[in-house]
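Running log. JK asked me to keep both predictions on one page so they can be read side by side. First protein, sequence followed by its tokens:
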Amino acid sequence: MFISFLIVLAYLIGSLSFAVIVSRLFGLPDPRKHGSGNPGATNMLRTGRKSAAALTLIGDMSKGWLAVYLARYFGAQHGVEITATYGAAVAVFLGHLYPIFFGFKGGKGVATALGILFAISPWLGLAALASWLIVFALTRISSLAALTAATLAPILVSYLIGGTLPVAALCIISALIFWRHRTNIHRLLAGEEGRVVKPVDTSSE
């Protein structure tokens, strides 16, 4: 019963879509109807407001970290640390993808997944972040960097943490990232995926 509570709490935390929240605070277009239509940091960057994109990134990462941290902390006190930790990891990620507070229309989950990885293990988070940064620096293609990190995450958790449940949870999260990036994958295969370029700053207009 207590595990169920932690999992539901994690889902509700994940359902806080920071791209939508930040866009409303800044008076920006709804990210679900602007640019790529994805409520995430990359799409927020297309508005020209780097501060809004940064806040979205920090918010989405933080909620992933917080949900897993709380589940681990309170789960340990009730003898269910492992189950609570990885159940919450999947739940907060699903909350981001399908947020109950925003019509179940969420983002692709890359920043939230990174926060989850850092909560599981700082080394795991750093390794995934490094893979993302390397691929992005070489290609300037955010989706390709995300897919690379998602591919490596289950392998990294198997090496650094081990255990059936951690690997299974990361496989589920990685599979969902691939599913949410399916249109990007089609464009990548067709050589049509766009690169991230420096946005035009419209804050003074």
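And the second, directly underneath as requested:
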Amino acid sequence: MTLRDRGALAAMAAGVAALTAAALVACGSQPAENVGAEQANTLASAPPAGVGAPSVAVTAGALPGDGRTVPPVRLLIPTIDVTATVNAVGINERTNEFEVPPSVDQVGWYRYGPGLEANAGSVVIAGHVDSAKQGRGAFFRLRDLDEGDTLTATGDDGEARRYRVVAREEYRKTKIPLDRYFARDGKPRLTLITCGGPFDAKARKYRDNIVVTAVPD
């Protein structure tokens, strides 16, 4: 990953799931207890079965060019009552941040990473936690997911793919390991991201990111 790429992704992590409009409603400020962190790290570092382990840089400005990409269009997480439309998003050219859909009941798939058909890498979906004007976001209860919970991501090919949660972690936005969560190598996995931790009223944003990792079930 180049320094330019890391800079862009760092800005994305800082802005992911945070509305630019002034007002966010404080969600639970107590840090979520991390579970499965070691397994999440193993998934990121291990090559998929039958595939070598060359690291592929995350590039913010180019789509993967290796065949048909299947974008997720719908996300279902029964445990936390989520049924959300998934939009393909990139980086906002003006703010250099992850361009999460403005409607808090929708979530965004990072279209410069792997699609649902990929046999390697991290499929990243990010969503808002909440908004003072719109209320609770699709990922308001993301921090409640636990190991073993299941979810379904449906692609634009109509196929519903089932995943199982293996990890839930919370990081300061300045400390999130971007190489791990936006990688195109390692075992196939789904990465869900939102904001969490204490809310800074002056800066009008949350301090942390909540990251949930799920694997094909």
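Observation for JK regarding the second prediction: The chain is about 10% helix and 35% strand.
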